Structures are given as C-alpha cells and as structure tokens.
Amino acid sequence: MGLTAEQLRTSLDALAAAEPAFAAALAHAGYPAPRIRERGYQTLLRTIVGQQVSVNAADAVWRKLEALVGDATDPHAVAAASDEALRACGFSRQKSSYAKSLAEEVTSGRLDLDHLPADDEEAIAQLTRVKGIGRWSAEIYLLFAEGRADIWPAGDLAVQIELGRILCHDARPSEKLTRALAEAWRPHRGALAIFTWHHYGAAAADAAPV
C-alpha cells in the first residue's frame, strides 16, 4: 500500500523544517490525502488500460475485459485471451501487446510482484522490462502500491511545474534539474511528489473563476 497520512505528515514536516519554500506551500495548501493502490498485477494492468485515455473510457474497457475473461485480475486469463478478443474489449493493438507482455511476465515467474528488489532502481528496472511500463509508470506503482518513501518521478510534468512554482523558478525545471534538486530531499521525495500534485490541484482551484 502507499504512504499513509502519518507518513506523509512526518516527511512533509521534515521537508518544511529544511526548506522555507516548502513550509510556505504546506501552510497554504495543507497536507495531501494518501494515494494508495493495491499491490500486484491488477494495478499494473489498469495502468496499461488507462494510458492516454479518459478515466471513463478506461473503466469501460475494464468492464468489457471482465466480461470476456471472467476475472481480469488473473494473469492466466488475460494471457489466454486472443488478440482479437482483447481488441473487441477496446484495447489498441499496442495495448493488447502490452497486456499480454505483463501477463506472461507474471505467469512465467519472471516478474514477482510480491518480491520486487528492495533497491528502488533495481525494482524500476524489473518493472520496465514489461512492454508498456515505462519509468514513470514503474515509479507511480512503487509509490502508490508499495509506499516506497523515496520514489521521485522527476519526469512528471505536474511535479516539474509545481516544484518550479514552489521554489519560485522563472521557468519549469527540466527533468534533469528536477532530479538533481531533489537529491537534497532524500529520503522524503515520495511525500514531496504527492504534495506537488496536491499543490498543483490547489493552485488550479485558486485560479478558477468564482
């Protein structure tokens, strides 16, 4: 499971004590709610299903998949489904390939989601061997489903935008700079990532017309 509310509060308090800009942002936006997903195959498959489509569209595809295979959380069922059947559920040709790749990695035992390496980079490397799981998806999984406290998705656009805003940069920091800046905030970078998304939402709410 992901970082708890207590873990988020503890990490963000430590960051606020170390960096006045974080203290000011925290005072304005408050603490974020936990972002928790279930560990395992289902969460990664849902990540693939949800790529580049709306939440409603992803939910519709998932319902069709469940109707097709009975239990979409069973990788054996997805591995056994034909490409044509998956396409009928709304999978693109590419996503069908991704779903099959994930199912085969899990059913073969090459990917053991209950025993990923403790080292974050090694865990990311294992996850990104699956077609369709890039670094960002792997990082989000490790943060939300495993609660790894120091995951830092520096390639996330909202993280970059909000970090630049909080630190009063003139321009959005690049992924490289976003990663470099955060070295000083170990081991609390996961909480900071969640806070940047929360702060991004708060800034959007502030900007909305009344």
Question: What is this structure, in a nutshell?
Answer:
The protein is an all-alpha fold and 210 residues long.
CATH topology name of the largest domain, in short, is Endonuclease III, domain 1
Helix content: 55-70%
Strand content: under 5%
Note the main sheet: none
Determine the structural class based on helices, strands and strand pairing.
mainly alpha
First and last CA, distance: 37 Å
CATH class category name of the largest domain: Mainly Alpha
- β-strand number: 0
Q: What does the radius of gyration come to?
A: 19 Å
Under the CATH scheme, the architecture of the largest domain is: Orthogonal Bundle
Tally of individual domains: 2
N to C succession of SSEs: HHHHHHHHHHHH
Mean pLDDT, all residues? 93
Low-confidence stretches: none
CATH superfamily of the largest domain: Hypothetical protein, domain 2
Question: Globular, elongated, flat, extended or rod-shaped: what is the shape?
Answer: elongated
How many helices? The count is 12
